[in-house]
Amino acid sequence: MSLVGVTEDAASQIKVLLDRESKTATHALRMKVVGGGCSGLQYQLAFDDQFQETDAVIESNGVRVVVDEKSALYLAGSSLDFVDTLMESGFKIENPNAATTCGCGNSFGA
């Protein structure tokens, strides 16, 4: 099992965004967990071209995802999806390590 999985829908959207910014060859999507939010921890997604030796670099559905060592503890086994419905639009993280989540899904407790 990979540290983090990326669905085909999420990978397609990541490729669109990277291509729009002409960063396809140089950048990866960084998934990070930081303190904050109503449940104590929150997710951060950003494009990054600076990688550390301790970062995990995952290739999933044709995109690279980078996770730092600390965030990997909270993200192990997670899946990144992209949804676009009448009710919500954006990236969504399914995290089996989240003991609690807030109503908006942007923060969690472990």
Account of the 3D structure:
With 110 residues, this protein is α+β, with helices and mostly antiparallel strands. The protein has one domain: Hypothetical Protein Aq_1857, Chain: A (Sandwich), CATH 2.60.300. It contains two helices and nine strands, in the order E-H-E-E-E-E-H-E-E-E-E. The strands form two sheets. A six-stranded mixed β-sheet has the order 4-5-2-3-9-8. A three-stranded mixed β-sheet has the order 1-6-7. The model has no long low-confidence stretch (mean pLDDT 87).
Labels describing this entry:
single chain; alpha+beta; Hypothetical Protein Aq_1857, Chain: A; six-stranded mixed β-sheet; three-stranded mixed β-sheet; 2 helices
**At the fourth CATH level, what is the homologous superfamily?**
HesB-like domain
Specify the structural class: alpha+beta
Rough shape?
A: globular
State the CATH architecture.
Sandwich
Tally of strands: 9
Whole-number radius of gyration?
Answer: 14 Å
State the separation between the terminal residues, measured CA to CA.
21 Å
Question: Quick one: CATH class?
Answer: Mainly Beta
- Which parts are unreliable, with pLDDT below 50 for 5 consecutive residues or more? none
What order do the SSEs take from the amino end to the carboxyl end, as H and E?
Answer: EHEEEEHEEEE
* Helical stretch tally: 2
CATH-assigned fold name: Hypothetical Protein Aq_1857, Chain: A
| Arithmetic mean pLDDT | 87
Kindly give the count of domains. Answer: 1
* Strand residues, percent: 35-45%
Helix percentage range = 10-25%
The biggest sheet amounts to: 6 strands, mixed
The spatial strand order of the largest sheet comes to 4-5-2-3-9-8
